[in-house]
Design brief:
The complex is a heterotrimer of chains A (about 250), B (about 650) and C (about 230).
Chain A lengths: L4 E11 L8 E11 L4 H14 L22 E2 L2 E2 L21 E5 L8 E3 L2 E2 L2 H8 L21 H11 L6 H5 L6 H12 L2 H4 L2 H14 L10 H5 L7 H16 L1
Chain B lengths: L15 H8 L5 H4 L3 E5 L3 H13 L2 E5 L17 E2 L11 H11 L6 H21 L24 E2 L5 H19 L2 E4 L2 E9 L2 E9 L5 E5 L2 E4 L20 H8 L4 E2 L4 E7 L22 E5 L2 H9 L12 E2 L1 H5 L9 H16 L8 E4 L1 H7 L1 H19 L8 E10 L2 E2 L12 E3 L17 H21 L13 H19 L4 E2 H15 L6 H21 E2 L9 H25 L23 H4 L1 E6 L8 E6 L14
Parallel strand pairs in B: 1-2, 1-9, 2-5, 9-17, 18-19
Antiparallel strand pairs in B: 3-4, 6-7, 7-8, 10-16, 10-20, 11-15, 12-13, 12-14, 14-15, 20-21
Chain C lengths: L1 H5 L1 H31 L4 H12 L1 H30 L21 H26 L17 H11 L1 H28 L5 H32 L1
Helix pairs in contact in C: 2-3, 2-4, 2-7, 2-8, 4-5, 5-7, 6-8, 7-8
The chains are: A alpha+beta (about 250), B alpha/beta (about 650), C mainly alpha (about 230).
């Protein structure tokens, strides 16, 4: 547990004052960081120094800091959520970096996620995809008893695998085509595995797919980068199910 | 006679809610279309309320400070959600859930509210299943249950270790459907900064757009606060970084009473603080105590060696280990309730037996369970938690015991509400963790999710109609009324004030200082001397804050430091109220432990004769003492007893 | 249906179906080519080539095959351009997640290189057989039937021009790499995949990729070594 101290590291980070401003990289030195510190805590330390030095701190998104809310982003040294597996940036620790290293920090580079400020991006496009059909159309009240509809354990588990998506955007950020297919597949596949989702299956697949295209995300070329970058390890097998759902719906037209 | 009217319906406990529903007013569909409701916060309570109200036909404006409603901190709840379904045929019932919740809350909650919560709990499960929440299932395809936190039945429904996430995504999907249909107008990255009241009624809010920095006015016929708890007053907690109490606090300052702020839950199994750079604490699920044994060294010299890293935990033989929970509470052992386990850990560390370099950790050891059940079984049960622990600490819990320490987790106190969930300001409602009503002095595991969804899906949509039925003649609220302009001016002045102090200290330094004062004096064990000292120190901190704060950046741009400054300004005031409430309540109950009120063995001693009331505080000015109003708690159904886990 | 054609998935379905079609063509192509190795007299190969040139079904298939190539090539350009637009600003630190040579990441580049190879290949053989003619083709075959001596054309190239051997070995490897991703990816796109079949399809894709790479490149190597 004895964590080493990194005497000096260099953080090369994207600075951009607002959506329309021209951005640039700036490099800052951070000293005396314990390797037991989380990456975002290192950013806190850097920001504290920037503020004390009369500079504008780096704006980045973060909230729960336990890897579930999906708010944190950051593309670190060529990896969405940094060079560790199955973690979000907030769970990334400085153990993954070494003395004297230059760490490049960039925002998600996805056309559909414009930069708001510095490394903070606007993921409203994901909201729009969900609003296009990521739901079962039931009102509150008047629903049958929870045990009316038996669901096999395997189906429930696979639906849960897909439902684990935290909507962080790492899939689109890491995909060379900036495709949101894994995000889309997670929702469509969850409902495709459950009887509750069957009623609207066709409408859902078509509407969500069309919305994704409309928003300017790229197409899927099955590189599989998304599932490697996904902090929840959601399999691209769900993308196959999404394609199947979509083609089924289209063939019925 | 108190000025507080809790509006608890007459009649036997089991009939109160039905009778009440039958008696309250209903708004016609044609009129619902003309009415607007603002919902602040989109966690379980806020999202479910916004969706349900929109489905009924109201025009809803929903606000959250995150970039998506799905990110609200309800998402982090791991364990499960309670419901009195009795699917396991283990004699569970609405009454038993009601009884467990009141007892678990150490008899400081309102009976009628808790019974209603238990009554609607089965509907929540049905609703979530219909939305497509992938609850765990048995091989036969029916819903699976597990037991939780010391109760005698299995009534907890779960979706792996991500129940909060799945329930929130369910509510979020319902919300999305309403957004798509136009019933809900969603404002993300917007923070409520003031409440607007007209003729004493809540009529809107002022919110700051966190992207442009613009301050905007929003009008409505009613305002619902679903902004969660105030655990971040302690700086380090299991709450998300952005969780704040500002929405509740501006309501308090506009006249909504704040109830039982001293009731704060401290969770015993969190990963200990690591150095001074730590920003937040991570919870390790309570379920770990089912198989882990908690211990510290018996000998002081061993503890010292452990702290220096000269020996490791595995170097200590069983006879040199002090399984203090099993020693003190032989019948419940490692499974004592959260508050008891937390205090016991603190007692050991304060006595000098803490095991990490800071001396603020105890061991949670799985060695014995692995010996008994095999590594495979343990991996199956807790694999994901062990992996999370290893990612954070770089230590392998299969090989050496976990280090754990208690941390602030949940706040039972909150804005005072009546049976309709309306605050003391007409037209202002508070739901979920933001209100105070259901958990008393201590919350049972898996009950927070239940309460948030009960309020949002099944209580508020009914009770708000009773108020709005009287508002149907009020036209759309004009946000150019002087009250709005004045409130907006107040907000702009406050932002200017914070921004223009131009001192030398960034806001986090004040927040950390506040957190230290709170943790040291208003934490797990409290006494009059410490509390008095804390109040004085917080007041001094407030003076320093307004003298020396440094907010960088621009007013009209993304500015997280400015956001934090506003929140911390409110936390400082709230911290003082919390300490005052703790000082006033000279008894030990649930999460609130007053050293003056304990047995000879150091166990909590409740004082029903003097403190069986809700302490609701009324704002009288920042520098003035708040006024205390008491709502007496009348227990018609349940007989009060002293909790014992010996 | 029109929005299906322009939808990102619709275009991908075209890639997928034409890709699978081209793979099946290549399987036949490889099988026939291997006759070059198994009969040094060239009779077997010449007969097979003659059959392919005269069979009416194959005659019908020829333009369809060409269409398959054209769609596969044009669509790939269209998709790639569109996909590039989805990321207007690139990462300064690049992509360190997938290895730079990962076929899945380089399908378009591999495809372009294969296209160049294809053009060369067509000029080497198809153009000569179908359009310009070549003295080597007119050499007598040992079959006793009037037909092109395709074997002479091929063996001459591979025996006398070592640079072409190198190019054809490279071509075989490129095709193998392209298919090691393309095969399972095609099934994925049309939805014929799941968590269990993922492993099987990927295994098959690698297997087929290796068979193509080894199979096609073994022919020039064989001629180079043997003669």
């Amino acid at each position: 547990m004895a964590d080493k101290i990194l005497n000096k590291i260099y953080v090369k980070v994207w600075r951009q004052n607002n959506a329309t401003a021209k951005g640039r990289f700036e490099t800052y030195t951070v000293e005396n960081v314990s390797q037991g510190t989380s990456f975002l805590e290192m950013m806190d330390i850097l920001n504290d120094e920037l503020i004390l030095g009369g500079k504008d701190p780096i704006a980045f998104d973060h909230d729960c800091r336990e890897g579930i809310c999906g708010m944190c982003s950051l593309y670190i040294n060529g990896h969405a959520h940094g060079p560790d597996t199955q973690v979000t940036t907030c769970q990334l620790h400085m153990r993954k970096f070494h003395e004297g290293q230059t760490i490049t920090v960039e925002p998600w580079r996805v056309g559909a996620f414009p930069v708001i400020k510095d490394v903070m991006v606007d993921r409203t496009a994901f909201e729009k995809i969900q609003q296009a059909g990521g739901f079962v159309s039931v009102n509150t009240g008047g629903v049958p008893d929870g045990n009316t509809l038996p669901i096999s354990q395997d189906d429930a588990e696979e639906a849960m695998d897909a439902a684990a998506c935290i909507g962080c955007g790492a899939c689109a950020a890491t995909c060379k085509n900036s495709s949101a297919m894994l995000f889309l597949a997670a929702k469509v596949s969850q409902f495709a595995k459950l009887p509750q989702g069957q009623v609207e299956a066709k409408r859902r697949a078509k509407a969500m797919y069309a919305k994704m295209d409309e928003l300017g995300f790229g197409g899927c070329t099955n590189t599989g980068a998304c599932e490697l970058a996904c902090p929840k390890s959601i399999s691209i097998a769900h993308i196959a199910r999404l394609n199947r759902e979509y083609l089924k719906a289209k063939l019925a037209d | 006679m108190s000025i507080l009217n809790s509006k608890i319906p007459e009649g036997p406990i089991a009939e109160k809610w039905s009778n009440h529903k039958a008696g309250i007013k209903v708004v016609s569909p044609a009129n619902k279309r003309k009415l607007e409701v603002i919902v602040v916060g989109t966690g379980l309570a806020g999202a479910s309320a916004a969706a349900s109200l929109s489905e009924l036909g109201y025009n809803v404006k929903a606000f959250c400070y995150q970039d998506s409603p799905r990110r609200a901190h309800s998402i982090a709840a791991q364990g499960g959600i309670n419901a009195a379904k009795n699917y396991q045929n283990d004699n569970d019932s609405v009454y038993r859930l009601f009884y467990d919740t009141v007892k678990g809350g150490d008899y400081r909650s309102r009976e009628a509210n808790v019974h209603r919560l238990a009554e609607v709990s089965p509907n929540i499960i049905d609703q979530c299943v219909a939305q497509g929440v992938p609850f765990a299932r048995e091989y036969g395809g029916l819903l699976s249950n597990r037991s939780f936190g010391g109760v005698l039945v299995s009534r907890t429904f779960y979706a792996r270790g991500q129940t909060g996430q799945q329930l929130l995504l369910g509510a979020y999907s319902a919300l999305n459907r309403q957004i798509a249909e136009g019933g809900v107008k969603m404002y993300t990255r917007h923070e409520m900064v003031d409440l607007v009241t007209i003729d004493g009624k809540a009529r809107g809010i002022i919110a700051r757009d966190m992207v442009t920095g613009e301050v905007k006015r929003f009008g409505a016929h009613a305002v619902v606060i679903a902004s969660g708890g105030y655990g971040n007053v302690f700086f380090l907690s299991t709450n998300a970084m952005g969780c704040n109490a500002s929405a509740s606090w501006v309501c308090y300052k506009k006249g909504a009473f704040f109830a039982n702020p001293c009731f704060v839950q401290i969770h015993p199994t969190c990963i200990p603080v690591h150095g001074s750079q730590q920003s937040k604490l991570t919870l390790m699920s309570e379920s770990l105590r089912n198989d882990g044994r908690v211990w510290t060294p018996k000998k002081m010299e061993d503890a010292e060696k452990l702290r220096k890293g000269l020996i490791g935990p595995n170097d200590l033989k069983d006879e040199d280990r002090d399984f203090y929970l099993e020693r003190r509470y032989p019948s419940y052992g490692n499974l004592v309730p959260r508050d008891v386990a937390s205090r016991a850990a603190k007692e050991r560390c304060d006595a000098g037996y803490g095991v990490n370099s800071e001396g603020k950790a105890v061991y949670l050891d799985f060695k014995y369970a692995i010996e008994r059940l095999g590594k495979g079984t343990i991996e199956k049960r807790y694999g994901n938690l062990f992996q999370m622990y290893e990612k954070i600490t770089d230590a392998d819990p299969y090989k050496e015991p976990m280090q754990i320490y208690p941390a602030i987790h949940y706040t039972m106190g909150g804005t005072w509400v009546d049976y309709n969930l309306m605050t003391t300001i007409p037209g202002l409602y508070a739901i979920g963790e933001a209100n105070f009503s259901d958990h008393g002095a201590n919350r049972l595991g898996a009950s927070a999710l239940m309460q948030g969804l009960a309020d949002g899906y099944f209580v508020l949509p009914y009770t708000i109609g009773d108020y709005l039925a009287g508002e149907i003649m009020i036209p759309k609220i004009d946000t150019n009324l002087p009250e709005f302009i004045e409130a907006e001016k107040g907000v702009l002045n406050k932002l200017d004030q914070l921004f223009n102090i131009k001192g030398k200290t960034p806001v986090d330094h004040f927040h950390k200082k506040l957190g230290q004062i709170m943790w040291d004096n208003v934490g797990m064990a409290r006494n009059a001397e410490g509390l008095t000292k804390a109040i004085k120190e917080i007041q001094e901190l407030r003076v320093e804050f307004y003298k020396d704060l440094l907010v960088p950046g621009e007013l009209k741009n993304v500015n997280p430091e400015l956001e934090k400054a506003g929140r911390v300004a409110d936390f400082i005031e709230l911290g003082e109220l919390l300490a005052r409430d703790a000082l006033n309540r000279n008894e030990s109950c649930g999460g609130h432990f007053r050293e003056e009120s304990s047995t000879e063995e150091g166990e909590a001693k409740r004082d029903d004769a003097n403190f069986a009331y809700v302490a609701a505080w009324e704002f009288k000015g920042v520098d003035a003492e708040p006024a205390l109003h008491k709502e007496d708690l009348v227990f018609e159904t349940i007989h009060l007893t002293q909790r014992s886990y010996k | 249906m029109s929005n299906f054609l322009s939808a990102s998935i619709g275009r991908k379905v075209f890639m997928s179906l034409t890709g699978l079609f081209l793979i099946s063509f290549l399987l036949i192509h490889l099988t026939l080519n291997l006759f070059l190795i198994f009969d040094d007299s060239g009779n077997l190969f010449n007969q097979a080539a003659h059959f392919m040139a005269t069979n009416p079904i194959i005659k019908v298939m020829e333009p369809i095959l060409a269409l398959g190539f054209i769609i596969h090539i044009i669509w790939s350009g269209w998709i790639t351009l569109d996909n590039m637009k989805a990321r207007p600003q690139k990462y300064a630190s690049g992509d360190q997640l997938l290895k730079w040579w990962a076929p899945s990441k380089n399908m378009f580049i591999l495809g372009c290189m294969i296209f160049i190879f294809l053009v060369l290949h067509i000029f080497n053989f198809w153009v000569k057989m179908k359009i310009t003619g070549d003295p080597l083709l007119d050499q007598a075959t040992g079959t006793g039937v009037e037909m092109h001596n395709a074997y002479a054309l091929v063996s001459n190239l591979f025996i006398n021009f070592p640079l072409y051997d190198l190019i054809y070995v490279l071509g075989g490897i490129l095709v193998g790499l392209h298919i090691s991703h393309g095969f399972w990816s095609a099934f994925q796109t049309i939805g014929l995949n799941n968590i269990n079949w993922m492993k099987r399809l990927k295994f098959l894709a690698n297997l087929i990729g290796i068979v193509f790479a080894v199979g096609f490149s073994s022919i020039p190597i064989y001629f180079l070594i043997k003669f």
